[in-house]
Amino acid sequence: MQKILPKSIEVSNEANLPTQFGEFKIRSFRERKTIKNHTYTLEHLVIKTQDLPLNPLVRVHSECLTGDALLSLKCDCGSELHMALQKIQKEQGMVIYLRQEGRGIGLFNKVNAYALQDTGLDTVEANLALGFKEDERDYSIVKFILDYYNLKRIRLLTNNPNKIEAFSNFVSLEREPIITQCNTHNAHYLEVKKIKMGHLL
Prior knowledge:
CATH superfamily of the domain at 9-100 and 140-178: GTP cyclohydrolase II
Structural class: alpha/beta
């Protein structure tokens, strides 16, 4: 049965993606959003196993170019993504990769925030100094993606209480922690996530 899509969302065909973590299927979800009279196009990605159980493991991961692609040690994003892909390959499920860099402020502003962090500000203080909230991410597309795959229950791989609260409004979930190794470069970053943002670390 063909799904009826809202005009603001397009869905690509599904393709194979062999990776060092295993064989996956990928599909892109193109979302058009209008914010303050400006229209933006965000191309999200679902990376999934061939089969999905009734209660799959799901990681909702926001893009972090510096961590995911350049393996930056300033954050835990790349390590979390790699761990999620390993777990999902083993236990079956999906990564929903959202194109909202820098907690939703974009790459340009994220680099400016990094520069402020070099002067001693933490991640929250840097975002606020640039005129943003501590976290500008929007998770509304997640409901559409979970509905697209007819998922009613998930095991959510996260430490973020905001995700738990947001997704609990439209899917039955249980949380599974995702804990990666700390290093000297990201220790303070992780402390700020725990103390100021309430992450379950």
